[in-house]
Every structure is written in C-alpha cells, then in structure tokens.
Design brief:
Blueprint (H helix, E strand, L loop, with lengths): L12 H9 L3 H14 L1 H12 L4 H11 L4 H9 L3 H11 L1 H9 L7
Helix pairs in contact: 1-2, 1-3, 2-3, 2-4, 6-7
Length: about 110
C-alpha cells in the first residue's frame, strides 16, 4: 500500500469499506459485494481501487455506467489493470460520463 492511500494495514474490512465509499451508498454496496462474493480477493480489489485513487461516487460510476453492474467485468478490469484504460475510452465515447467522472475528482485521462 502506498503512503497516501486511505486504507491502512490495521483497518478492518468494514473500516476500509467506509473509507473507500465516501458515504456513497452505491459505492458501499459495490464494495460490500466484493467482500461477500470474494472474501480476501475482495479486499485486494478494494486496495487496488485505493491505489488507483478511485473512491465514492467514482466506484459507483465504474459499476453502474461503465461496467453495467457486471461483477465479472469489474473483477476482470481490476485483475488485468484495465480500469484506467476503460475509463479513458468511455470518456472519449461519452461526454456525459466524462463530465460526471471529472466532477467527482481528478481528470479522466490517466
């Protein structure tokens, strides 16, 4: 884990979920789904999102608008390090997605 990440080694899975979801119930649901479906692999996915600096509403945007609520597609994107590439492609194709993504934090293109 990087020094400026939100998740720390002594955080419980629930503490990590709360830190990462930023109070966004959709993001909390997505992250909770990782934990329920995958256990330790779910924790690794959550840590990967932390490394990518993707939190709260951006997690929900990835799940709902980019990956169509497809758990396998989300797993694949995280395992194969495709998240940034997928976001960049979606921002080129869909101006409204880009505006929303940019609204919730750092610029879309990596």
């Amino acid at each position: 884990m990087l020094r400026d990440n939100r998740i720390q080694l002594n955080d419980s899975p629930i503490e990590a979920l709360v830190k990462m979801s930023d109070g966004n119930p959709g993001a909390a649901n997505v992250l909770g789904g990782f934990l329920q479906r995958q256990g330790i692999v779910g924790i690794i996915h959550i840590c990967k999102l932390d490394d990518l600096k993707i939190y709260g509403s951006k997690i929900w945007l990835l799940w709902k608008d980019l990956l169509g609520c497809d758990a396998e597609a989300f797993d694949d994107a995280l395992i194969n390090n495709k998240v940034r590439e997928l976001v960049a492609e979606k921002c080129i194709e869909d101006e409204s997605f880009k505006k929303e993504w940019d609204y919730y934090g750092a610029k879309a293109a990596p």
